[in-house]
Structure formats: structure tokens, C-alpha cells
Fold this sequence. Notes:
By secondary structure, the chain is α/β, with parallel strands linked by helices. Among the domains are: 179-209 and 255-264 and 272-447 and 486-502, TIM Barrel (Alpha-Beta Barrel); 533-910, Aldolase class I (TIM Barrel); 981-1217, Pectate Lyase C-like (3 Solenoid). It has a ten-stranded mixed beta sheet with strand order 33-34-35-36-38-40-41-42-44-43. The protein is globular. It starts with 9 loop residues before the first helix and ends with a helix. The mean pLDDT is 95. This is Glutamate synthase [NADPH] large chain. It is an enzyme of class 1 (oxidoreductase). Belongs to the glutamate synthase family.
Amino acid sequence: FPIIEPNCSDSGNFDNALELLLHSGRSLPEAMMMMIPEAWQNHHSISEEKRAFYEYHSALQEPWDGPASISFTDGKCIGATLDRNGLRPSRYYVTYDDKVVMASEVGVLDIAPDNVKVKGRLQPGKMFLVDFEQGRIIADEELKAEVASRHSYQQWLENQRIKLSDLPSAKVPEQYDSVELLRRLQALGYTSETLQFMLIPLINAGKDPIGSMGDDAALAVLSDQPRMLYDYFKQLFAQVTNPAIDSIREEVIMSLECYIGPEGNLLDTTEGQCHRLLVPHPILTNEELAALKSLDHRGWKTCTIDMTYLQEEGTAGLEQALNRICQEAETAITEGYSLLVLSDRAMSEKRVSICSLLASGAVHQHLVRKELRTQIGIVVESGEAREVHHHCLLTGFGADAINPYLAFESLIHSRKEGILSDDWTDEKIIAAYRKGVAKGMLKVMAKMGISTLHSYKGAQIFEALGLEKEVIETSFTGTASRIKGIGFDLIAEEALRRHALGYPQQQGADLHLLPNTGQYHWRRTGEKHGWNPLTISSIQTAARTNDPSAYERFAQEMNEESVAKCYLRGLLNFKETTSIPLDDVQPASDIVRRFCTGAMSYGSISAEAHETLAIAMNRLGGKSNTGEGGEDYSRFEPMENGDSKRSAIKQVASGRFGVTSWYLSNADEIQIKISQGAKPGEGGELPGHKVNNIIASVRHSTPGVGLISPPPHHDIYSIEDLAQLIYDLKNANPSARISVKLVSEVGVGTIAAGVAKGFADNILIAGAGGGTGASPLTSIKHAGLPWELGIAETHQTLVMNDLRSRVRLQTDGQLRTGRDVAIACLLGAEEFGFATAPLITMGCIMMRKCHLNTCPVGIATQDTELRKKFKGKPEHVVNYLFMVAEDCRKYMAQLGFRTINEMVGRCDLLEISNAVDHWKASGLDLTPLLTPAQKPYPEAGLFCTKSQDHGLEEVLDNELIKRAWVAIHEGSPVEFEIPIENLDRAFGTMLSHYVSKKWGENGLPDNTIQINAKGSAGQSLGAWLAHGITIDLEGDANDYVGKGLSGGTIVVYPPKESKFVPEENIIIGNVALYGATEGEAYFRGVAAERFCVRNSGAWAVIEGVGDHACEYMTGGRAVVLGATGRNFAAGMSGGIAYVYDPDNQLLANCNLETVLLEPMEIEEDIIELRGMIEKHLEQTESTVAQNILENWEASLKDFKKVFPIDYKRALLEMAQAEVEAANV
């Protein structure tokens, strides 16, 4: 003991647990099935025996969730299994001389093509096993069927499983009258904003409410107001090391279902192990809770524990009550209770409610320490919990289920008051609330790459921001709380202050309305915000008049009021040191070159605003950022007056909108957006009403059709994948810097070290307070950390590992003044990003309506009338940023620095302000910010002094460029042969860059450069392949084939001497044609997972696909001449897929949320399909194509047209518009 070794890797811990299960007498395949089950909950075609096996074992332990390809052996067999979502590549060959070769890539060993019997890949959740004793490969279905049939799991479940619906009903408490309801709402921290911005929108939309422009309200630990304990926690999220998940489009792998209550012995496989309560949804109705509280059923009974204490006990009463609750929980176990209900219903004028999170966390941790936690379930009856973030915290810190009774009652009361429409009933309200919370919780789980609540529960995937060690150790053991903060005394003080709002001690002091505390929108008497009418007015005056005195007033207000009362940097002062003359400091014109604007896409903001920012930054010599929406090619050309609308930073985000070879070739810096400060771990969605003709053209999509950005980059599931994308992009533009955007969270320094080792040139650490055009309010308020913590940790980690000199560090997230820039520099940044402030200088008044397309000043809208109201000018941004630079120079002179480089990382010149006198902030410890980086040796760099070695001189494309020289420079056709191996990555990408630089967006005529390759191609074959280049590969290829295809043609077919049947074998890997915008691709064989993901223009033919094919597709054509995997066409909004479906399996495998399945009846479609199949036959000599064409009339009946609903509507509208225009 311990079974799970401390300080061990994830893989090591997995091995520890696997070994334990093996020693219990289970077979190796059975143990692997227990630990990495398939996504069985929503898998409708899975056998009942296998489903029962997985459900039975889900009562014993949670799944090991996340991306993994795991190999295993016990000497008698060797095998491998893949995670439930297929997020790792695992390819294998089986040879005629009885060898099996499995690796993350093909081509790791040289094997004669005529010796290859099978080319396969592991499928999501599947297992591959070689049994030495039987001397054969055992298929997944046979293997699992045998394991699942060893016991009568289905009968065991039917005998032992307890369902909520089976419990005897019980009386539900009466609803509170309006007076008592208001008191309780006030005492538990409800505000008018709670209903206006959170609860009512939650049920109306059936999902987490949307907001915009980020969070500039004071941190909870700096707030003058009593804040909910939940506000002191920030959600963690996946970035780089594992991917986030799309919980909406990939719902088939998500699940909230859990078994709760006493657990059996993990080492036994007996019927009694599944005698547990099945809870399908973590949010319990009042009826379900009433049944649980009165439970006396099949040996189960429930103990209810009061979560309140006497008000007269004051702040000391909180800890005493927590101790009592923990002891009562322990006693309940010894007395044989199966469930605990922690309830705050006893709250009254004389009894104060304990925060449900604090109490349930304390009980969970106490029972864990006493080794009793598995013997009882914890249910929370909470009037306090109401938001998605609250429920995530409660489950994340150990609660098994939650009854938010006061949230229910507040919404029901809203119906009675006429705030909700008459068609709402109490039942509909509860159902809508549960649905909205479920979607929100799944999204938060998915941000971390977790697909089941069973895995998320108790995982503590949060960081505390402003809580003292004693609180963490009692209720949140092991949770990071780097800057400490308030203890039990102040938590109790906040609770007492809230309680006094609902139950005032003075007669007649009752409030007859919920307070409006201004957490979301600024109010004069509400919460402090970084931006308020005074600061907005003063910055606009300064920018428009270029008046330094006006800027000084703005900066003073910001530094002494807004920043000081809202942000960590407001607690810092500069130490006194030897100053230098201002004239000795580098000029502002040098400093502004280090300034960038934030990534705001053309689509989220108007063309006028986007272009104004670009012009301003080009005048400065700084850099503007395209955001993820691409850029109109006309902006690449200078304007007549010498200005330029070209953005120096071209962003590459998960949607890959408009990312072509020509786009990348026109970049000074290419930024990979891993996360965004206002919504880390999430994708985005541009609604159809914002997609006008120009935006659709830039994004290679259809006007009026909404666009989805996936939560993850589908070519980044690990740090190695990120290194590959950096390599690909460096090949796509060798002269551009490659930047990676991360978001501040605990551990971001370690991630950044991996990014630096992956050869990024620039790393941006974004703060959580950054703006956004649209994001769930849960993310805006509760995900990510301040940039101060992130940049300090990253700088210190990179210096300690001697990586700092290889990369530039940048930060952003509500930088506003020269003081902010100076502090960011002292903490480790050498470049600085601005977004909200430049928008305000151009006229933004922080209405926070960006997501509604109703921006009154023409910035965050595509409405043609509203855009006319835009009054911003480039000089406003130029004026403001020059004043920021001049302001920064004064601090540099004060501190004795002549250049920014001298200043980087000198946090020894910062100290905590002596003026900090705040009832909550006094307990903060900013040591993590103020700790100087530890150099591994004296000469180790503190800022970027050297370039990364990307190894471009070794790239095979150098040979391609030589051989194609005459084609590149003169346009003369060339054709040549060349061998290729899996070390040859991004084959054709640098060649495409040279073609694009010479010939522009249209490239060369078709087949000008014909490359005939032979072998196993490395990752990213033909990435961003330019028009006029054809790659004809005889062999096979790995992941990311045709990524960003930009007009070129890719053909892949098996070697001529191969003996296997091509249409039954894997020819290319995962994520082919990701973000392709134009071109053709023909593959004789089967693709692995996510074929044509986010394809927006390529025409492709393939002979079978894995799961999630055509996901998020917005244009182009995909012809599938074989079987499809699960979740076909999820999120597909444009383009058309034609699927050959003689076995009628497509309907079961297709995600029909956004598409229709139609027969082949339209003549244009039939001609188009036949033409593509004929081209496929011509290019690959496919026997499948040949057979279909020879039996065309009969085969045509077996084709289905997959037609996106929105795309069909848009095409009809465009056709109607053309008819109407012709009749005018």
C-alpha cells in the first residue's frame, strides 16, 4: 500500500490498478474492459450481454476516461485497446508470415507490400488481442462476447439494481409563501441578476446562458460584497495534453448516469456488488428527494443531517457545525444508513445556512480520511445551489446528487408573477431546468476531456482563488490554492451578512425585492468593475483628442480605483530603486512594436472595426490578429494611401475557417489558438444571421448558414500532436513565427514548457478576464485564472528548465495602462496584447450585447444599419497605445530600466502594497507572483535571445522544390517520382508555400506539378496543398492527410503487389481533410476516424470511414463507397455527402440533428455522383467504383444523400432570390 503509487505518471497509476484487478483473479481482457469500457450508455447497437457487463462494472468503479491507446500483456497474450472516443491513433499490419506490427503510425518497419495480409486500426473503445496459447488474433466482438457471458450480469442487475422510479413515493414539502421565499432567496445570495441572466435564460434556451465581453468584475476575494463560496473556485480545463470534447455533437460518448450508495468489494464479482441506486440525472426533483429522505427499501435507509447553525453563535459557529456534521455522517455509517441527505431547509431567522459546497466537501473529505466514503452516498438538499457552476463544484467535490429546491421554487414563482409565459407549467419548468443544467454540466466536464459524470465526480478539477489553507484541508483537500486568502471566519462573516439581508435584525429593514449586485452589468452601487462609465468616457476622450492629460486621468482612475479593487496586480507596488532619466529609456515607437491586438474574428466584429484595428496596428508597427474567421484576400494588398488592412497575425483555431496556403503565406506570425480566456476548453458558434456573403466567402461557407468551431483542434490530442501542427505551419510559411495561445490555469507553466519543446516561437498566456463575442456565462465567470498568475508561473518554469531564451512570452486579458504593461513585463512577458481597450477607443460602450448582433455602435454586429453607426478611426487606437507606451516608459525610468528586455522577469522589484486594508484581501499571499525565477546556471536567459531550430533544412520538400523549380518560377509542367517514408511529414506543404508566394491564391493550373510517391507517408501528407500540385501515393498514409487542402489533388492507393482487398483495409489515418477548402482527394481503401472533419470545399471519394466522419462539414462533397462509423455528419451544416448503403446501416449511424437523408432523385446530384466515382476509378483503379459503375442503375438505389437542413434552406432561398432578381 498504497496501491496507486504517489508521484507516478498516469500510465503508472493505470498499471497499478490493472495489476490489482489481475491479482483478484480476473483475466487481462476482462480487467481492461472494466477500466476502459466502450461508450456503452448511448450505444444502441451494442449487445445486451455486453451492455449488462459494462453496467454491472460501472457499479464497481468509474471508467478511466481520456485519450489513450494502451497496450498490455501477461506473457500469455498481448493486446491493445483504445479510448471510448478514438482520440489516439493505433494502426497495425498483419503479415502472411504471422507477424503483427502495431504502432501509432504505419511505416515504422519496412515490410514488403506482398507480405501484408491486413492493414487495420483500433476503433474507439475496441480491443485487439493476440493469444499466444491459441496462436491467433481474437476479434473484439468474439473476445468481449466471451468475457460478457461468463456471468449472468443482466439477471444480477435486474435482481439487485435499485432505480429511483422504483422507490415508494413520499410527501413533498409545501412551497414557501412569497414572503418567506424572498427572505430565503436573499439569505442565500440570490439577486435579480440570478433570475434575469442565469435561471430564466437557462430554462428558455435549455442550455447555459450566453454572455459577452468577458468578466471585469472584482475577484471574489477582492470584492467588498459578501460573495458565494462557489465564486472562489475556477474550473480547470484541458489544453494540449488532452483534448476537450464536444458534448453536443459527440453526445454519444457522454453520460450523466451514475450508481450511488454503498459500494461492494472491487475484487469480487458477485451478484450483490450491483446492489446500488441508479441515478440517471444528478439533479433530483423534489419528489425524488422526498422518496430518498423517507427511504426504507430493500435494506436501504437515509439519514438527514442539518446544514445550519444558530445565528447567535456568530462566526465561531461555522467550524463547530462542520465538525458536528462530519461526526453525524460517520455515525450514520456505523448505524447502517445507506444515504446521507445534507439539508439546509432548517434555515430560519435564527439559523444560518452553511454553504452546501463547504459542508458536502467537508463530509466527503472526512469520510475519505476515515476510509469510509465508499460505504454511503451523499445527497445535497440545497437552497443555495442553482447555477451550472454550483452543481459542477458540488459533484466535483464528492456529492452524488443535488436537489436545488429553491432554484425550482424561484422559477415557479416567476411563472406565478407573470415573468414566465403562461404556457409554462411547474413540471415543464423543472424539466427545462434539469435539461439546461445537464447540458451545462456535460459542457464543463467536456472542457476537461471527461465524458462521464462517474469520472468527474470527486475529481476536484478546480483551483481555489482566495481560500486559506485551513479551508482547503478541511473541505477541498489537495485542491490548489496558490495565493491563500480567507479562512473560516470570513466565510462565516460572508454567510452572516447574506443571512442578514433575508432576516434583518432591525425591525422594518426588510428588502421587498432581490438586490441587484451588478455582478454581470455595472451598477453604481453594485460590484466594482474594471470598466465603468467614467473609465470608458475618459479613455475615449484621451484617444480621440490625443490628450496626454486626459490619458493621465484615465490611468489614475484605472490604477487607483478599478484595477486596485478588482485585480491581483492592484495589490502590487513598485519598489523604490535607482531611477534613470526618461530620455535614457527606449522610445515609445520601439515599445509599441511589442503590442498586439487580441484575436477577434471578422464575424464576431464588423468589417469596419476589424479593418480599423489592422490599419492602426500596421501604422504602429505592432500586430493585429485575424481571429479565427480568416481574412479577405483583398486586404493583403496595400491601400492607395500607404496604409494596410492586412493582419500580421493569422490565427489558426479549431474551426480552420479560411485557413489556406495563401492565407498562411501572408502571415508574419501564425497563432494556434488552443484556448480562449473567456471560454477555455470550448469551441464557438457563429449564428447564421451573422454569416453574410463576405463572411461566407472568407470562411469558405454558405451565407445564412451557422458555423461551428469544435472545442478541440482535431489534430491536437497531445503535446506531440501540437508539435506536429507547429511543424506543419512552419512548413506552410517558413518565415513566420509560430505562436501558441494558452489560458492561465494552475500547471500552465508545465504545459508551456512542452510547447516550447515542441518548437513554438511564441507563447501567449491569456487571462480569464478577456473579452468575447459570445460565451456561456459559466465560462466567462468561472473558468481560467488571472494572467498575473499564469505569466508568472510560465516564466518561472521556462527559466528553470532553460527554455525561456527560446521563446517569446506574451500576455493579455484586460491590459489597459502603462502600469499594467510594466507589471506584466516584470512578471515575465515581453509582448503585450490589448483587445477590449482598443474596442472602447473605437466607440464600444460595454453594452455586453455582442452575441445578440445588436451592438449600438456598429462594432460587434453584421447588421448593415447598425454598422453605419461605427465612428472609430485608426488614429484613436494609435493615440491610445502610444500613450500606454509613454506611460510605461515613466515606470521604466522610475525602476531604472532602459529597455523592455532588461525589465523582463524582474519581479524582485515588485512588492505587496502597504495600503492593502481590505476585510478579505489581507489574507492573500502573493509569493507565487513575486518569486524570482530560478536559473539553472548563471547565464540562463530571462527573455528570448535565440531562434528555435525547426529542422526545415532536413525536410524532403527541399528536394521537391528543386525538382519543381521550373514549374514554380515559370509555370511549366513537371512530373517526377520519389520514395517517401513516415519520417517525411508535411509532404508538399513547403512546396505549396512557394507556389502560393509566386502565383497567389489561385496557384498553378491543374497537375502542373505531378509527384508520384511510393511508401508510407508521414503525418500531414499534402497539408495546405496548393492548386496545381498533385500527389499520387502508392502505399498508405498516416493522420491528417490533406489537412487544409487548398486546391491540390491527393490520390492514395495500395501498392500494386498488395494481396489484400483494399476496401476492407485502412489506407489513411485519422482526421483527413481537416479544414480543407478546395481540391480533390481519392482514397482506395478505408479511412480511420473523423474523415472530412470541418471540410469546407474539398471533393473526396473514400471506400469506408470510421466514427465522426463529415463532422462540422460546411462545404464540398464526400462520397463514401462503403460502411460508415457512428455519429456520421454530426454538426454538418454545409456541403453534401453521398453514401453507398446497401445494408441500410447509415440511418443508425448518422447523427440526424442537422441533416436529412434523401434518396438519389435529382438529376444534377446523380450526374455529380457518377462523375466523382468515375474520377475515383480513373485515379485509383478501384474495383468498388468499377462494380458500382457497371451496375449503375441498381447501385444508385443504394446511395443516400446526406443533406444539411440549413444548407438546403439557404440554397432554396438563394435560388428564390435569383428568380426574383431576374423578374425585376
